[in-house]
# Entry
Amino acid sequence: MSHPSYLIAAISNSGQAPETSYRQLQNAAACPAAPYGEMFKLEVPSLMVGTLDSLMNLSDDLGKTDQLIESIVRKVEKSSIELAGKKATELTVGGVPSTRYIQQFAWDYAKFPNRRPLKELVSLISGGVAAIDEELKQLSNSYGDKQVALQDAKRKKGGNLMTVDLNDVLDEKIIRGLKIIDTEYLKTVFVAVGKGQREGFENEIYKMGAELVGYGGPDWSNNPRGLGQSYQFGSQVDRHGKKGSPVVPGSLEKVMEDGDSVLYTITVLRSMYEAGYYEGDEFVPGTKLDLLVSFSKVLKEKRYVVRDDFSYDPSMQGKAAMALEQLQVEVDNMRSGLTRWCKTHYGEAFVAWMHIKVIRVFVESVLRYGLPVDFTAVLYKVTQGKDDMLVNALDKTFGENKGKEDDFEDEEEYHDFVLIKFNP
# Structure
């Protein structure tokens, strides 16, 4: 939602009464003859001045602090709007709209003691806002993680056989009708494929991973005369002289299908042992190669989905729906809590932002007009589209070249008075 823009201006009283300066500021840009905005008094407290060097250093830091706090205010505001969606309502500051708070600003002496050194005061304000920013990050991350978990649960609940929790679609009768093997050497795995891939999968499954398993060694069936005779063994046998797929022939079995996909089981070799060998007098132990991992990778490259996350558990039936419902409740509660948090901490961050603006006015005025502190500050609520007109009017009244047009083409505008823009 759009907010009006504001300008804070401060001029030296030059020995005259503050009311006189106030009238000059009003006549310059907020009167019938110059209707560029509505003007409000801005009460700047008596703050500790310190040294000139400290003020100059603080002036440089205040601009950065101002921008940083603004970014955090915007972040909290954006989070609140995104959480509320169409139900978004205007955020308030201390129970009132931010525009009213600005226009009726009063320094919070209890929260920000004006007799503390300025550097400490700025650190106090910026530290409180930094804590808000950090807490928002943590809460947003937790809420985001919970949302991801909810979406994942919804995907599994409403998805096809490639994503759905198989414990919700396979019952005990179906499982009993399947030949499921889980031994030291063999493992039955579930594979889901899209219906468009069905024919290709059934035709190539026994050839897939044909480079994975070494079946080389003595061929007793083709050479029965050598049966029982001494043959090379262990590392002397070329296991990879003959290769093949780890899929057990004839093990493919269709389990079920839905509108999009088909679920199969296949039985594969779990692993393959590579024999140890001697290097000189030292024996190098054999190794066991995990064929399940390698074969799963081959299937995934073909865009077949290995349901290696599935282990049948009859007690889990229906629990996915309960878990989904619980996740939804948790997400809703976190959204409500984060929305309330944003409403509360938006006001806190905005208060800090406004106080930093006022400190900037004080510091810039002291640096420009010197001591003793004697200046008048006002707040202009700019009429829409008349920002440049208002600034030009102030320049004509309070600039050294009164009545002449100034060139505003420079990257940084300079004025003969203190001028700070404020776009809440």
About this structure: The radius of gyration is 38 Å. Residues 403-411 have pLDDT under 50 and may be disordered. The chain is about 40% helix and 20% strand.
